[in-house]
Amino acid sequence: MNFKDKVVYQIYPKSYCDTNGDGIGDLPGIISKLDYLHDLGVDYLWLNPIYPSPQRDNGYDVADYCAIDPAYGSMADFERLCEEAEKRGIHIMLDMVFNHTSTAHLWFQKALAGEEKYRRYYLFRPGKADGSAPTNWQSKFGGPAWAYAPEVGQYYLHLFDETQADLDWSNPDVRAELAAIVNFWRGKGVHGFRFDVINLISKRAFEDDPNYFDGRQYYTDGPHVHAWLQELNRASFGQDPDSFTVGEMSSTTLAACVHYAGTESGELSSVFTFHHLKVDYKNQQKWALQPFDFAALKTLISDWQTGMAAGNAWNALFWNNHDQPRALSRFGNDREHHHASATMLASVLHCLRGTPYIYQGEEIGMTNAYFDDIDDYRDVESTNLYAELTAQGRPAAEIHTLLRARSRDNARTPMQWDSSPQAGFSSGTPWLRVNPNYPRINAADAVRDPHSIYHHYRSLIALRKQESVIQDGDYTLLLADHPQIFAYRRDNADAELIVLANFYDEATSAALPLETLARPGDYQLLLGNYPAAPALSAHTPLRPYEAIIYLRRK
Ligand code: TEU
Ligand code: CA
Fold it and tell me: What pLDDT does residue 335 have?
């Protein structure tokens, strides 16, 4: 299937639209918004997990892979969602959380009850001679990555929360179960799959980590990961010529991703990678703040653009998801330049080579939540951090600064539909507070205003479908050393595209080396984010956060 002209929209079901007033978004709510999504022009809807779950990690702790959590609706609702979406030419993409299950899953319960078959589904290991955990690895959510199960007399590995037990993929029964789950959903007409932290499934060895302490070198891009993905592909989605898959790759490398998402690899269609979203991490630490490193951002995006193309592999393109603070609040200016910075970020991303993802609310310029009360937070990672740093004696104000910048709840606040109470998300009390800026930032206003951020996204989606150069053109970085401008060229047999974007509050100008351009007069303005964009010249002026896309047809 050709997916080069497709755009994916990510829905966080819990926060999208609540139709029965329990404060939790649901499948009927998504169905009620399909016309909105169709008008936007997206092709796929990736839904975060909707399976029965204790919700300790908002559904990434799956208790049953082949059912719908009653909080979201029924299987009949899901089938209706698929049908109604397909009627509008939209496909559903489901989230497959296969590195771990919830400890509430029947498999784990049977393991605890002493069934040998199921104990072998997980990574139970004896403690060290002194009774301490088998290795010193740290959980990604803080604390040790091993928990002791007295029922078994051993520890089990959990790279995430202690209620998320890692599966043992080296057990062929496990791999067969997982393929059967994909096939179950294929049977419902699902063609799209997103695989959660799929590059962590192959553990290299269970040893103390002397270097980084967290253990990631022992399980990231492990020895069998490619073989197991190829096997899963053959046993499930690879049998469907219309399948489209994306793997979430944690702390990976370009070389590994060329395999994961290589056209000829028989693994996945595409990958999510995160290097470009760590440029504001001080010393690679999520909970240490620094202004984003613009030079690094450009280099990373460019290296992945050219490296994946050279390897004949395909990338996902995204600024936002449910785990990231809002990019607009992070790389833009969500106060004085709300519209310009939101549309600039969108323009830069949507003209790159790869599949663009729009995370719910991004298309209307939703911002970080900026909560200042720990009771407003729901995410286990945030509440764990608060407890941990408080215990270390860090002042509350300091911890709040970190959470306001980095908490995953920044992205998870309810979708802002209109200016009615609770932003039109729910008639009850939302599970997570609505951002108080909804009277100003909401979908109803955005759809009405032809110059809104929403309409800019619509135009970008339409352009990808119209212009083959956006789908498959070669990428070249321009003005590599410019401290404010991200500029690049896309080029194929049909056309040449030039994108100029100012990432900062101050005006500047793009001095493109004229010898690299065909006659400047040949470039037409395709899309700008300010009224009256200038023509392309040797010194194209750019206002704060201005982004301009030019096209030259061949
Ligand atoms: O996330 C994987 C992951 O490692 C991160 O994005 C993580 O949330 C972040 O590093 C914490 O700082 C995936 C899901 O997207 C996330 O929501 C889940 O919590 C996680 O896997 C476990 O299933
Ligand atoms: Ca509901």
Answer: 97
Whether 162 and 178 map to the same domain: the answer is: no
> What is the position in ligand 1's atom list of the atom closest to the CA of 97?
23
Q: Considering the domain boundaries, does residue 87 fall inside one?
A: yes
Q: Residues with beta carbon inside 6 Å of ligand 1?
A: 57, 60, 97, 140, 160, 196-197, 248, 250, 286, 322-323, 381
Helix (H) or strand (E) holding 111: helix 106-112
What stretches of 416-452 show up as alpha helix (H) in DSSP?
443-448
What is the pLDDT at residue 514? 63
Q: Residue 517 Cα, ligand 2 centroid: separation in angstroms?
A: 54
Does this model's pTM top 0.70? My answer is yes
| Ligand minimally distant from the alpha carbon of residue 69 | 2
Cα(531)–Cα(533) distance, integer angstroms: 6
Q: What confidence score (pLDDT) does residue 38 get?
A: 98
Beta carbons within 10 angstroms of residue 504's beta carbon? 17
DSSP 467-512: -HHHHH-EEEEESTT-SSEEEEEEE-SSEEEEEEEE-SSS-EEE--
Residue 156 and residue 218 share a domain: no
Domain for residue 386, yes or no? Answer: no
Average pLDDT over the chain reads 97
Q: Are 141 and 380 in contact (CB under 8 A)?
A: yes
40-50 average pLDDT score? 98
- Mean pLDDT, residues 488-504 taken together: 97
In a domain, 480, yes or no: yes
Segments forming the whole domain that contains residue 476: 471-553
Q: How far is the CA of 78 from the centre of ligand 2 (A)?
A: 14
Q: Please check whether residues 235 and 338 belong to one and the same domain.
A: yes
Same domain, 243 and 114: no
Chain center to CA of 397: 29
Q: Are residues 287 and 183 in the same domain?
A: yes
- Residue that terminates a domain, selected from 425, 458, 491: 458
Which pLDDT value is given to residue 177? Answer: 98
Give the span between the Cα atoms of 116 and 310, in whole angstroms. Answer: 47
Average pLDDT over residues 501-509: 98
Question: Ligand 1: which of 93, 160, 198 to mutate, most ligand atoms within 8 Å of CB?
Answer: 160
Q: Give a yes or no: residue 427 inside a domain.
A: no
CA distances from 190 to 109, 236, 546 (A): 29, 12, 39
Into how many domains does the chain fold?
A: 3
Q: Distance, CA 323 to ligand 1 centroid (Å)? A: 6
Q: What pLDDT is recorded for position 1?
A: 73
Task: Identify whether residues 203 and 296 lie together within a single domain.
Answer: yes
For 270-322, write each residue's pLDDT tens digit: 999 999 999 999 999 999 999 999 999 999 999 999 999 999 999 999 999 99
Tokens 């993409």 appear where? 93
Q: Which of 123, 150, 166 is the last residue of a domain?
A: 166
